[in-house]
Each structure stands twice: as structure tokens, then as C-alpha cells.
Amino acid sequence: xxVEVDGDFEQLQKQNGVVQPLLTDLYQITMAYAYWKGDxxxxxxxxxxxxxxxxxxxEFTVFAGLEECLKFLQNFHYSTSDIEYLRKTLPxxxxxxxxxxxxxxxxxxVVLYAVPEGTVVFPRIPLLRVEGPLPLVQLLETTILTxxxxxxxxxxxxxxxxxAAGPHIKLLEFGLRRAQGPDGGLSASKYxxxxxxxxxxxxxxxxxxxxxxxxxxxxxxxxxxxTFDESKVRRLKDSNGExxxxxxLALKWQAELSxxxxxxxxxASSGEFSAFVDYAVxxxxxxxxxxxxxxxxxxxLLNFCAVAMALHDLGYKALGVRIDSGDLAYxxxxxxxxxxxISDKYNVPWFGELMIVASNDINEDTVISxxxxxxxxxxxxxxxxxxxxxxxxALGCVYKLVEVNKLPCIKLSLDMEKVTIPGRKEAYxxxxxxxxxLIDLLQRVDEPPPEPTKRVLCRHPFQESKRAxxxxxxxxxxxQLYWKDGKLCQPxxxxxxxxxxxxxSLRSVRPDIxxxxxxxPYKVSVSDDLYQFMHDLWLQNAPIGELF
Amino acid sequence: xxVEVDGDFEQLQKQNGVVQPLLTDLYQITMAYAYWKGDxxxxxxxxxxxxxxxxxxxEFTVFAGLEECLKFLQNFHYSTSDIEYLRKTLPxxxxxxxxxxxxxxxxxxVVLYAVPEGTVVFPRIPLLRVEGPLPLVQLLETTILTxxxxxxxxxxxxxxxxxAAGPHIKLLEFGLRRAQGPDGGLSASKYxxxxxxxxxxxxxxxxxxxxxxxxxxxxxxxxxxxTFDESKVRRLKDSNGExxxxxxLALKWQAELSxxxxxxxxxASSGEFSAFVDYAVxxxxxxxxxxxxxxxxxxxLLNFCAVAMALHDLGYKALGVRIDSGDLAYxxxxxxxxxxxISDKYNVPWFGELMIVASNDINEDTVISxxxxxxxxxxxxxxxxxxxxxxxxALGCVYKLVEVNKLPCIKLSLDMEKVTIPGRKEAYxxxxxxxxxLIDLLQRVDEPPPEPTKRVLCRHPFQESKRAxxxxxxxxxxxQLYWKDGKLCQPxxxxxxxxxxxxxSLRSVRPDIxxxxxxxPYKVSVSDDLYQFMHDLWLQNAPIGELF
Lengths: 548, 548
Fold this sequence. Notes:
By secondary structure, the first copy, chain A, is α/β, with parallel strands linked by helices.
């Protein structure tokens, strides 16, 4: 785990897809130079990373991105070419010894406390407390924000879709083509999975993160066939290994079902029929067809059912259909009814249970509206709105200095919401007897922790009169030590474990806080001691004389 | 340029940051198998990549991402580990020979025509025409869309900010921390620069793409100082190399200017003063200070001017200030007036011209509103809204099959806007005598191209009665051949050349089309021949009997 520095380091970083320390804002480096030049390299600083407002008009956020931050620390090192670049980019007055300082810099003096990845978190409670020499911890800011902001945003978005869809609907992430380039797409797949999705269409994400991948065919596949005769491979082995004339069988079923379903045979697309036949021959055990290329009711459903029943004759079960346009609630009801009718008429029980996948620019509101209308969809494929987080495309995490050399720092602002809470702090989550989270509490580090069954005074951080005594049944210390002495301090959970953590953590949050529309705010508080400390400091630092 | 295949290929890809072919949707691979299994590997397909609507309620789009698509083609190859992953991910019924087919696949049979990168483009005119064996060109879809959608979106967004700000304001991209992870941030920096920004805060983008980088310090830098005595390095060499007591000099100026500016000396932050001194000592030739940590008027401006005048005494010129909160128009006017007053009083001409940088959640509407209010800002730092494209976080490029084996394909839809224009097509831009683009014209490939000074009939693609004769002064063929026989067909422009192309291409677009509010739509048209071809095909394929 110790940070190794050698000539191949840069190559190693690239190979591992690890984020490089130059992925930062230039001002971090100019600040580091000013600290170095000003002899402040040994000043000991504490930064808090937190956000001020939950995204998507919601009242919770899922914390994600920690593992990538820790990998960034493990590999933190400026390569020779980084130093060369900085040397020619910074003003010529910058002293050469600064570049020696930079090239020797590693994250070994950083101490990082964090809430475990996958925890549900709330405004103002820091997710990370980063400590160490001032220039070094300052240099980490942008990269850490980059790694956490989008990860947490998309995990939260995914959790909201999961909440809207309910636990029994399959959710698939289809957003690669609308993401912020290749890596934006990969991050989206990874963190949507953590937030509660079941899989992705993104094959590389599947390979890299071991996420289930999913997909069948596009409209282009259907459109590339134009006639009945186009299936060159007409035969398919049945489940006993005997070759059968699959095209004739499917044509027979098409004629039969067109009568049963009351669909005009001539109006069904013959190209679509051929495409379905070829797809079924390729995937007899997992046939799932896109049925809206021409017309769901007058073509796609008939052709699908004909091919699926022909598969049934050969001993195979089809998977289902995907609908990518039109009135999804209505079409899913028609499809389900059709499947049930065929199931009953031909005594094929599984036919009624075929999967119905819906896609087409679905967002959270669509899911809620479809639920209200009543639908028979089993699976949503969600792309653009999930990965771009259209409702709010950025989470505003900030990284604020709260202490230098044991002296607290406070950022004042005319906007009370923007005042920072100074000093090193611990955070606790207090639980009620029914297992639900009651309130989060920030304290100064040297205060005794709250204890179960003992009364604790929780104060609103800014409003003097808002105070409450809470008697927790359980107290959870939110921060764990993740990084010290250049080493990870505990093994990191797998992706699946983080996903489970999100699930468990969300379960501990009251339903009214999680609901998609007009949720109840969760309370975050400070101890009486911290309240006094902060407000005294505020008064000391705020100039008198401003008209209010 | 030829595609080399060897054991180190995967490593090579990673080293070059090249996008891998597994960065795609799974359905591309299942479709490829169905094509392979259905003996359609030699079917010759033509796909068009286009969008249907300009982003941001605008009437133009900047095309970007082509170079990355070409690099993707150059390196298109499934590695051994890719094949292993696919083998265990696809159903066991998939025949082993398919994986041999995949592992031998390169992009040598792809033919790619495109509009040059940086060209201003409009809805429905394909940006790319991709031809080749059906499974191969199908396999490219998602990756190419991923590479073009966000690149074009952010380049267009940047061009809109440039248009709103005017040509003389400096625009800096500050969005890394709010982008979709590391690579989202890099893409944002690159394509914002192409779209007309002057630089970025993202150091890695500067290193990789040779984009100017910019930045000074954050509020944390100021907050890390609390007293007057905190500058440990009190001395600074003047421009003649003589050491001077810089702190005393700055303190003298602070006292002097507090009287001249009517600011109460005791109310100015002493920590801020120390921070400015240390920053000026570090960067005497490029001192730019963030002046809103405590109070712009009652602290930041005074402290900045004191340190800047002390620098002046030592023979240095300061650069200016950054304001990151509050009423940016008002504060910039106050700052400019202060600078002018000092310039006049102490006869320091450059002081009146100090740069004023504004940041803080600026979007296109903010820029327009600031212009209306009147401001003295020279430079905007723009982050979140630029990189997330908050107004519209995805461009809806699609990749549609338009021809297979010389037979045209048409995607019908009840929504007329979603009908595709079938067949292989050429695109032309017709110019008026004053050099402005008049109209874009799509034709079938075998039609003679329009000629300057000759009348050409341009038809609305869908509305029969909308037709116009146009006599162009100049005709530009929009597509160039970029890739054939596994090779690039022409040298690629540098980033700076693409940026210049955006500038030139935008200049050829009429101002009313480019304006930010309620712009005039640019006209795109089809030839009479293409119109007939398309509508005949439409009638042949659309079922009769739908109630309208």
C-alpha cells in the first residue's frame, strides 16, 4: 500500500486508469507555491468536504466516490513530465526548489476521515475530513471534488429512480451515448449500479466493474431486413438438437395468430418478421425483441408472438419485448393482455409472464406518471436523464478550510447558508428505537460522544431558538479513518458491498424523507458546545456596522 | 496509420487514452452476432449521424469530436481480454467462430465521410456518413455517439457564451470539479476551448491539449492567514534585484489608501492583508487577488490596492482582482472606479486598467444580464453551467441506417420529425454574395452538385408547399472523406486550427441565427429528386388505414 515512486510511475498510473494529480485547477498549484514561498509547508490544516443542499429537490444524498479518492491518494505523485510542464507554465520567477518539493511530494502525510461510501448523507455534515500539511491538502481539493461530486450525484439519482419504480422493477442504465464522453459514461454506469440499478448496457463498465450487462437490438437491426425471404439461415435446432424449418413454423404461427389477435397479416412488416426470425435463431434461449419499429399493435406484437410461439414449439422460452416509443402505459397493457390471451388459448403458462421492457427518454417523473396510469412494464431502460442528471446536473460539494495549526477558520458570508462550521469535528447519527435515523449531530472533536439512552441537546446550527433534546437508542459514529501514514487503514468494500450499504442506509431513513415529491427535511444539528464556539468566533470576526 | 495488432495492444490503447471498442452498448454486440449468424456480414450498410434539434433553444450547433472518432477507428480492435469477457457474458449458445470473427475485426473496411470538425451545423444534415459491412459499422454506433454528443454540446455551449460575452472579454473554463468525473472534465476543457474560450483552470487539459491555463488562489488561501504578522517572508527583491521590506511598504500604503478611499482601516481583514502580501511575494509579476473573502469594499479592495501599490514601488505591475460573490456588476463598477481614482491620484496609468475577473455560478443568462446592467468585468470564469450544459445536458445525436446493399431504408414514425431521410446523400452549403450561409441542401449522391450562380430548387424535407429557388454565389461541399482502407485520408487539423474553424464558420452564419434569444432558424432543405425519392418510399412503406 505504501506509495512507490519510480520511473514507470506515469505509465503505471495510466494503465490503472488512476487519476493524476495534474487533474486539478491551476490555482491549487499557485497557492501551493505561495505557501511554500511563505514558509507555510508545515502548517497543519483541516479541510471539510460537504454540500449545502440535497440535489433534485430531494432530502437525501448518497455518498459515493470514496474508493477513487483513496486510489488517488495511493498514487499521488507528480511525474517528471508533469514537473516539466509546470516549470514552463508557471511564471519564470518561481524558484527551482519548489519543483523539487513538488516532485518529492506524496500523500503520506495526509490523514483522511470519511463517512463510509454508500451512506445516505445530508447537507452540512462533512463527508470527508482531510488533514495534513497545508499545501498538500490544498492540492487535493479539485481532484477529490471531481471524484465525489458526480459519483454522489448519479448514485443519488439512481436511488431516486429506484424509489420511484419500487423494489420489483428491473432498472437498466442505457446512458453511455449521452454521457460526458467515455469516462463520464463509465462513472455513470458504476454509480447508477451502486445507487440501485440492476445493470447497464455499457459493456466496458460490465468488464471493469463486474456489473451485469444487458441489451438486445436497435431499430437499425429491424430496418436492415426488408422482406420475408431475407432470413438466409432458415433452420434452427430444437432443444433436442434436431434441425427444424424455423421460418415456416414462424410463418404458420404468424397466420394463426393474426386471426386470433385480429391483426391484418398484410399490414405486419415482413422485414421485421425476418429480423425477429434471425434474432431468435441467434439467441433461441434469450429472445427479446424491439417491437415498435413499425407499429407495436399492427406489426411488432404479432411478429414477436409468432416467432416466440415457434420457439416454444422447439422447446425454448422467449424473454420478452422492448417498447421504445409511443404511449408506454397503454402499449404495455395491450402487450400484457395479448400475452395472457395467447397463454390461455394455447396453454403456454410462461407466455403470460413475458418481460416488458420500456425505454425512450424516461425520467423520474415519467416513472411516477406511469405508476399512476397503471402499466405492465417489468423493466425500465433509462439513459439521458439518469446520466446527465437533467433535473440538477451538478452536486455542489465544497472543500473548506476549517482549521490551521489548531486555530479555527470561519468563512463569513452575508448569506448565512454560506457560513462554514469551524474547527475539527466529529459527526454522529442518532437512531430511534424503531431503527430509523433521527438526526445527525456535529460536535467538536474533544467533546464526549453522545451515548445511547442518554439525553443530548441538538441545536440548529444557525437558528438560536431551534433546539431539541434527543434520547437516541443507538449512536453511530459517522467518520472512519481511511488513510494515514501513506496507507489505507482498512480494507475497502467491493462494489456489491457498497451497493448493499446504500440499500441498508436508505432503509434506515424514514419514508417521508425519501419520497420523491415534497419530502420532509432530515434534521442536522450541532452540539451546544459547537454552537457556542461557532457563534463566538462569528461575532469576533464579523465587522460591526453593517446595516441589517 | 495502418492498424497494427499485437499482444501489447491493450496496453497501448490505455497509454494513449484511446477509447476501447467495448465502450459500447451490449446490443451492438448481440446484433453483430445475429448478423454474423444470419450470414449478413457482407451486407453493405450506410449510417447517417445527425441530430434533430439544436441545443439550448438555439439555432446552431458546433460539430466537434471527429478527431477522437478517427483515433477510435485507427485503434479499433478487441483485445484478448475483451474477447474473454464477451465469451463469458454472451449466452453459451453463441458459436465460438463468432469470437474469432470479432478478434480479427478492424476498421479497415469502414469508409467515413464527415463535415470538418469545428463546422457550424444544423438539424437533419448528417455530420457523419459511415459506410461498410453491416455488423462492423453497427458496432461503431454507441462509441461514436459518445464521442460526438458531448463534444459538440459543450463546444456549442462555449460558442454561445462567447457570443453573449462579446469578442473582447476573456472567458476561462473553471468546471472540472462539477464535471462527470475526470474525463468529463478533460473533455469539457478541450471542447470549451474549441468553442471559443480562452483558457481553462484544468492543468491536465493544459498539459495534454496545450490549452492556456489560468488561476490564482481560493478563499482557503486567504482564510489560512489570520493576522498582520503572519507573513514570515517580509522582504521582496525589487525589479533591480535590491531587497526591500515589502510588508512595511504595503502597510504604509494600506494606511494611506484607507484615508484616500474612505475605508476604516480597522475593519479591513489583517489575515487577508497577510495572504495578499505572501501571494505578491510569490508572484510579484502576476499578482491577481481574490478580494471577496471578507468584504470587497471594506476589506478586499483596500488590501489589494495597498499590496499592488507596494509592488508598483518595487517596479512591478499587478494583474488585477477576482470577485466570486455578491453583486458582480455593482462591485466591478466600484472596483474600476477605485482603480481609476488611484491611477489619477498617484499617476500610475496601468492601475486604471487592472483586470477584473468575475466568477460564481455564472451562466449565459447572467452574462446577458450583466451586459444589460453595465459592468466593468474583463474576464469571466465559468464552471458548472458550462461543463454540465445545465440548460440542456445532452445533445440528441442519433445514428440511423439509411441504406443496405444499395436499398434505401426509411424509419417511419407517426411523429413526422422522427422520419429519417433515406439513402446515401451529399450535403452542400449555399452561400450568398455577402459571404453568409443561405441554406444547406441534401441531395442523393448521384445528382449533379449545385453550381455557383445557377438556380437550384431547395425543398423543405417534409412540407410539400415550402420550396424556394436559390442562386448561390458559392457552393461548399460539406462532406470530406476522412477514413478509408484502414487509413486516415487527410491530415487532421490541430486544436488551434479547429478553434479557428469554429470562429470562421460562425462568422459565415447570419447574426440573427446566432443570437442568444429567439434566434431565426437556419434553413435546411432537400433537392427535388431527394424529396420525391423519400416521399415515394414513405408512401410505399406506410400502412394505409390509420385514422389521421
